Amino acid sequence: MQPFESQLKLAIEPVRNTLLAHTVYSQIQDLQGLQRFSETHVFAVWDFMSLLKSLQIGLTSVTLPWVPVGNADTRYLINEIVLGEESDVDEAGNRISHFELYLKAMQQMGASTTVIETIIAQINAGTKVQDAIEGAQLPKQVKDFLQFTFDISFNAPLHVKAAVFTFGREDLIPSMFMKILDKIYADAPDKVSIFKYYIERHIEVDGDHHSHLALDMVNRLCGSDASKWEEATAASVKALALRIGLWDAIFEK
User: What global pTM score does this model have?
Assistant: First the structure.
């Protein structure tokens, strides 16, 4: 492991451990709790795609005429992750994005998708994403989380985007959550089967392979530049802290 990478991981460890130990997980004990969880967590599934696509725009060629851009290994990483996130398969083998799969899971379990679908409809009608978020019926912690993601996606340098993607947007799913989900599924399989599939599929697709490639991307983009690593570290810590705020909002809900 590179010294700079080790220092970054050491810096984010306290906030990461706080996130893993958050009390929100212990509060999700039944279908209703899972519904409330998903109604807020869906925003982290949605905005993740914009962060990912911003990396695709910056690290691959998405304009005409095509010319080779950057490092081929990094291009492969981003394109592979986009492929998996934007056009995976649902439980029946049909092509679907992970976000759309999550909405489908919410609909099956009876969770409300009104707020997220309203925001998307407003964006499709021409509203700026920041304005749509500010006008939504959402807790401040959720708005802060989303505004940070889109600020990074639109404005941050590539090494910061890559760090937030790699370290600040980990889908931290502790074993406790999986045990709770198994219990809820046992009680109501016809309501939770798609959500369980989504979680299992997400773990499978975003496993160690992508983690190693993402680490390599950050190391390539930051190199031996100490200032870049400092910026990457600060952004990663903030991203994880805002995820704690998101979990706080779910806990309060």
Answer: 0.94
